[in-house]
Amino acid sequence: MIDRRMMLTTTAGLFGFAALRWLGGSAPARAAETFEIEKTEAEWRAQLTPEQFDILRKEGTERPWTSPLLKEHRKGTFACAGCDLPLFASDTKFDSGTGWPSFFKALDNAVATRQDKTYGMIRTEAHCRRCGGHLGHVFDDGPKPTGLRYCMDGLSLVFHPASSSST
Predict the structure, then answer these.
(1) Domains and CATH numbers, the chain
(2) pTM
(3) Along the 167 residues of the chain, how does pLDDT read in single tens digits?
(4) 80 an active-site residue?
(5) Distance between CA atoms of 33 and 55, rounded to whole angstroms?
């Protein structure tokens, strides 16, 4: 039988673990990697909004259903908000119903992945291969033809509409 002390100790431990992760107590995995674009924390903070910095550099997550990119349906390219590397073509975007912009395929040589074991789960984290910016996670429950769902934080992306050329 579970007694009160055990329940309080377990609850406190879980909250402590969550707070440690939430406050950045566990260094992002990218700290050991090198990327084509390297900047100091101060340089990233000067370039990004506080929310973008939290997501791209500290592996945070924006609240679902808050990204204006959910309603972005024009032709164009979604690029990294940190270094502007093109990441996803608009024709690979789909409504996953999750509250975050989702894509079934990344552009070639754009997105890299690594295992993410935070919060007691094993997931596949997606990051920009050029600057290492955290983008979101990749799941295997997406549509054909890939079966993948790149579930991206909208603040990690910028949208560039396709230019309309008149001939």
Answers:
(1) 30-161 (2.170.150.20)
(2) 0.80
(3) 555 554 444 454 444 444 444 444 344 555 568 899 999 999 999 999 999 999 999 999 999 999 999 999 999 999 999 999 999 999 999 999 999 999 999 999 999 999 998 888 899 999 999 999 999 999 999 999 999 999 999 999 999 999 876 54
(4) no
(5) 18
